[in-house]
Task: structure prediction
Amino acid sequence: MKIYDVIIVGAGFAGSVMANQYANDNKKVLLIEKKNHIGGNAYDYLDDNGVLVHEYGPHLFHTNIKEVVDYLSKYTSFYPYEHRVRGLINNVFVPIPFNLSSIEELFDKEKADYLKEELIKEYGMEKKVPILELRKSENTDIKELAEFIFEKVFKYYTMKQWDYSIEELSNQVSDRVPVFVSYDDRYFQDTYQMMPKEGFTKMFEKILDNPNIDIKLNTELKDVLKFDFENSKIYFENEAFEGKVIYTGLVDELLDYKYGKLEYRSLWFEKKQLDGEYQSVTTCNYPTPKEEHPFTRISEYKHIMENKPQASTIHIEYPYAYDANNEKGNIPYYPVFVKENVERYEKYKKELAKFDNLILLGRLAEFKYYNMDAIVKAALDKYKEIKD
Ligand code: FAD
Ligand code: UDP
Result:
C-alpha cells in the first residue's frame, strides 16, 4: 500500500494549491478529482476554433494580494487584461458596474449632468456605493435614480441568477457590483488584473507537476475513502487514515443530506462558434426579465486572449437550480446565500468538526463566495496554520 501523508478531494484552486504546498515540503499527496480534468471551475481548453474557452464560464484574474500573484507567478507568466462588461438597459448596452458614463448613455444631457452632479456631491468621485445603500438615500433625485438602477440592473438579473430577490440574499452578492461614481468602466479596480499566458489549465499542470503528487481523475471521494461517522474516523484502503484529509466538495453530500439539502445554483452554457466578432466586450449582461431573455449573460472568449483568432466562440449563460440529476444543472457553482442555507451549513460544519484530521476548504466546502485570488490566499494561509 502506498503511504500518503495527505489525501485531497478536488483538484480546483483549493485542492491544487494545498497539494502543491504539501508536495513542496516533501509530503506524499493523493489528489482525487471526480471530473476528467484538473482546475475545477477555472478549467480552460483550446477549442477547434482556436479559442481558449473557459468551460465553466469566464474566469478573470484580479487581485490586490501580492502574495497570491507571487505564488502563482512561479507557475505561469501573465499578460495584462482588464475586464469590461456592458449591460442591456432600455435597448442600449451601457457600462456595468453602473457608472457616470452609464448615466450619460441613458439620459438626455441636462438630466445626466444634474444626476452626475448630485451623485458626486453626495458621495464624491471614485466612490463605490452598493445599490442597497443608494436606495436608502434621502435625496429624492438620487433615490429615483437608485430605483431605476435597481429595476434595470439588479432586480431581474438577480431573480434569473439566484431565483431569490436581492433583499433575500446576503448583501455580499449585490455588493460585488456596486454603483461606481466614476468614469472608470472596468469591471474590477484591483491593482493586479491579468491572465495566465497559456491559460489556467496549463498553470494547474505546473502547480501539480511534482513527483510527490499522485492524481486520480474520474474518481469520487467514496471510491477511495470511507467515513465512519460514529467514531469520527476516515478509512483509506480499509485502514484508518491518520494523515490530513482536505475536502473541497459539498458538505451535505458528505453527510448524506442529514440536515437537508444545501442550495446551490448551477449554470448551463449554450455554446456557439462563429466567424468574426459577436460583441464589443468580453461579457454582455442581460438584466432584463426572464421572458425577454432567459439567460443572464453572453461571453465571447477571444476578447480575453492575448492573440485573438479570427473565429469566435461564445457562451450564453443560463442559470439553473443545482441538482445532481439535472441534465442542465448538475454542477454546483454558487452557494445560495440565504439565511436558511447559511444556518444549515453551520450544522454540517459542526458535525464534521468532530473529525480532527478533516479540513474543509474552498467555495463549496466552506460555503463561501470565494474569488480565485481569495481561495488561493485561503489555501496558503490554511497550509501555514497546519504547519504551525
Ligand atoms: P472548485 O473549482 O469548484 O473545485 C472543486 C473541485 O472538487 C471540483 O473540480 C469538483 O469536481 C471536485 N469535487 C467535488 N466533490 C468531489 C468529490 N466528492 N469527489 C471528487 N472530487 C470532487 N473567480 C475570479 O476570481 N474571477 C472570475 O472571473 C470568476 N468567474 C467565475 C465565473 C463563474 C461562472 C463561477 C462559477 C466562478 C467564478 N469565479 C471567479 C470563482 C472561482 O471559480 C472560484 O473561486 C474557484 O473555482 C474556487 O475553487 P475551489 O477549489 O474552491 O472550487
Ligand atoms: N448583478 C446584477 N446585475 C448585473 C450584474 C450583477 O444583478 O448586471 C448581481 C447579481 O445578483 C449577481 C451579483 O450581482 O449574481 C454578482 O455579480 P458578479 O458579476 O460578481 O457575479 P459572478 O461573476 O460571480 O457570477
User: Anything to note?
Assistant: The longest strand covers residues 264-275.
